[in-house]
């Protein structure tokens, strides 16, 4: 009987000690934990025929903000992303609206407006936002009509979509709008 009581006391004190230890775990030092970026760097790519189309951009979120003619001003050049300018790399020559665009990297900029947008491929692709944008470096400008979407797209999203083996489009969607740039492999 004494063995059972000593064993019971030992087990009981071990359980109490363990429970107290569990309640006193060291807390994580949040000052050393990296915060999730609000506009993370994103990459999208696709093969259109034998043309590898690669896009890198900063993807901001709506987060309850007024986007069009608010955070993103109308009638001003926008880097169409966050942080560094968005860039597009074509591994092969493409044709956009009848114009030959040689393979390579291009900055992708837009000039949003309520009824139409201007989509721009610039020969200058490596810059912070649109800080160093100059119109004389444009490879092409294309006017498009924005499409109103039913569903909210919280984070700015780029897609490269194949229309067939030689034609594709680059689609940009954010908030309730989308715009697209069509291209054809040369």
Task: Walk me through what this model shows.
The protein has about 190 residues and is mainly β. The chain has one domain (about 30-185). It has one helix and ten strands, in the order H-E-E-E-E-E-E-E-E-E-E. The longest helix is centred in the first third of the chain and has 21 residues, at about 1-20.
Q: Structurally, how many domains make up the residues?
A: 1
Count of extended strands: 10
Terminal Cα span: 93 Å
Low-confidence stretches: 6-31
Number of helices: 1
The helix fraction, in percent, is 10-25%
SSE series = HEEEEEEEEEE
Category by helix and strand content: mainly beta
Summarize the structure.
Helix content is 11%, strand content 44%. The protein is mainly β and 186 residues long.
Break the fold down into its secondary structure elements and pairings:
Elements: H1 2-22, E1 41-48, E2 51-58, E3 87-90, E4 94-96, E5 99-101, E6 104-111, E7 117-122, E8 138-144, E9 147-162, E10 167-185
Antiparallel strand pairs: 1-2, 2-3, 3-6, 4-5, 4-10, 6-7, 7-8, 9-10
């Amino acid at each position: 009987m004494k063995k059972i009581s000593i064993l019971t006391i030992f087990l009981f004190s071990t359980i109490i000690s363990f429970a107290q230890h569990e309640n006193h775990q060291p807390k994580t030092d949040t000052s050393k934990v990296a915060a999730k970026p609000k506009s993370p760097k994103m990459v999208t790519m696709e093969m259109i025929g034998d043309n590898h189309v690669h896009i890198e951009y900063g993807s901001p979120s709506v987060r309850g903000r007024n986007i069009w003619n608010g955070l993103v001003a109308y009638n001003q050049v926008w880097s169409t992303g966050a942080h560094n300018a968005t860039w597009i790399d074509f591994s092969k020559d493409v044709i956009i609206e009848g114009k030959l665009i040689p393979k390579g990297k291009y900055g992708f900029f837009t000039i949003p407006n309520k009824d139409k947008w201007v989509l721009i491929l610039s020969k200058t692709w490596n810059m912070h936002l649109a800080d160093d944008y100059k119109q004389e470096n444009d490879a092409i400008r294309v006017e498009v009509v924005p499409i109103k979407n039913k569903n909210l797209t919280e984070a700015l999203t780029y897609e490269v979509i194949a229309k067939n083996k030689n034609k594709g489009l680059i689609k940009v969607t954010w908030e309730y709008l989308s715009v697209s740039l069509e291209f054809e492999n040369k």
